[in-house]
Amino acid sequence: MEVVNAIGRRKAAIARVFVSEGTGKIVINKRELDNYFPSTILQYVVKQPLNKLDVAEKYDIKINLNGGGYKGQAEAARLGIARALVKINPEDKPALRAEGFMTRDPRVVERKKPGQPKARKRFQFSKR
Prior knowledge:
CATH class: Alpha Beta
Largest sheet: 5 strands, mixed
Helix content: 25-40%
Order of helices and strands: EEEEHHEHH
Strand order of the largest sheet: 1-2-5-3-4
CATH topology: Ribosomal Protein S5, domain 2
Number of helices: 4
């Protein structure tokens, strides 16, 4: 099997995912998964599609992550891994879609408007 690649995005984070056959090693930005994401919750989020399909020990995954915070990066990686697994085996798509791993979360930060301190906050109003 050749290398299968996919892109996952979430908020400002972009994950370029490369999946090849192997022993279940996940490398993010040239660092091990547990080194890059010390939080076990975020490690779990990244591995969710693999655990759902019981293929965690079957593939080696290399991820290039940039932008966003750690939560957005973890969820971007999850989407990228799910998309790559569907490229490998299209029959897996309904199972992953049922868990919500195939859906790109469209929520992003609202832009700051001119004449205001933040997106929705206004400067204090003074009548006099």
